[in-house]
Amino acid sequence: MPLQHSEDLAAQELSVRVTEQLDAECLAAFENFSGEQASYARDHRDIIARFGRFPHRNKALGRKSTKEELAYLAGDAPTYGQSPVNN
Fold it and tell me: Radius of gyration (Cα) for the chain, nearest Å?
């Protein structure tokens, strides 16, 4: 989980590999396990691969959003509990 919060693409790639392995192991061991953790890791990784950072953090970190980030945030982008008011 901490790897998913990193804005470093290498950390995100590691997060995907680790959670895919964890999902596979847990699916084999627990019959009621959903196996969806890796999909969240891939979602986080894809945002970093696209923008190099999490656009929904821009307001909180005082960063200026790009036009592409603003368009992304105006859509149905995940905000992970943060209020991404356009800046």
Answer: 15
What's the Cα-to-Cα distance from 56 to each of 17, 18, 21, 23, 35, rounded to whole Å? 24, 24, 28, 27, 26
Q: Can you list the domains of the chain with their CATH numbers?
A: 2-74 (1.25.40.10)
Give the mean pLDDT of 49-70. Answer: 95
Distance, in Å, from the CA atom of 70 to the CA atom of 46, rounded to the nearest integer, reads 17
Cα 79 to Cα 44: distance, rounded to the nearest angstrom: 11
Task: Name the pLDDT band for 85 (thresholds 50, 70, 90).
Answer: low
Inform me whether the pLDDT recorded for 71 exceeds 80. Answer: yes
Distance CA 40, CA 33 (A): 15
Whole-angstrom Cα distance, residue 36 to residue 42? 10
- Look up the pTM and report it: 0.84
* Token duo for residue 49: 């691969």
